[in-house]
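Hey L., structure's done. Input below.
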Amino acid sequence: MPNATAVSGPTWTQPLGTPGYPHYPLNVEAPVLAALDRLLPGISPPSGSGPEWLTLTGRHTWPAEDRPRRASLRMLARAAQLLPEAEDWQEAAEQAVAYDTHLTEDPVLRGLEAAQTWRGILLRRHSADAWRRWWATLADHPDPHELTTQSLPDVTVAAFTADLPPHTDPQGHPAPAELTLTRRPPIPGALAVLLIGARRAESLRGKAKAAFLGETGVYLDPGFVAHRAESHQSLRALGRQLVEDMLAQAHRIAVRHNQPGPALVTGHPIPPGQLTPPGYPASPGQAAAGTDQGSPGPVDGSPLPPATAPHLPLGTYRGRLLPTDPTPIPLRLNTLGDLALSHHLLSRTEDDGLGVTPLGARLLEVSP
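Output:
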């Protein structure tokens, strides 16, 4: 496990440009979505434009945001050439860029800085998706802490981590560890992906590492997971702590958006001097345990109020967790690929799979 302080520092904050409540109750998507806005700021072509708008030969005025979009398309075209059997454009990019040796050995990809950035984003996306799956699994359960405890094996964090698939190959290139965990049950599978993400910060380099980490010192980021994992011996205790952290994060996001009910049952410590809203108990996880005012909060160490109300179903609004979509975050690569397909830069057939047209190969400079 990486040194947490070297990865993310001791003071945890909210990410900048947060989308937040209600569609992203944990806000773990924010770093990925912000990076996508920089790489693909707009992929709707101007009226009357042709394929040159997406390529290096465009004659219109080039805003700064055009360059990363065009570099992303060049990366996507090369990925289609290398992996025509991929199911879609995003899968081709992930296999060609996130993993394997293409990024260092392929004559096109190794010279693309945008491809390095995409590697970091594609890998960070797995951590964000893991949080989303875990949260979605908890949403309809009356006791997320107990569900998590029962879902995890009774082993140490070290033993669980040692049994994970390798996150690098023998040469140090990223290995598709996350893809091998898709068949695990939701909670242990999500925790496994998060722990792998916590280890990737040590092995990534350059722009890939910068894109993977994003803004450091952020709640629930890979450094945060590393910090939590270092301070727990029991895997089940780590799981319960991360549930508290998720509930606390959902509280912070909802309060930021001035919603009326989030303080109800979130596991978040009420700041000193702030009264619990009328009719709202303290964190139900703490209430069930009978935590007193001297106990440390789950995230920032601030005191918890005394538990004066009965245990209620966990949630952030009217006693329920705000739901989140457990499906993977869309990375816009399929949209970009389909747009290039409509402009006859890329091709896709049942027999040949993904590919690049002669026009696309010339304009995007990806000729074999």
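Strands lie at 346-349, 353-356. Residues 2-10, 259-319 have pLDDT under 50 and may be disordered.

-- N.
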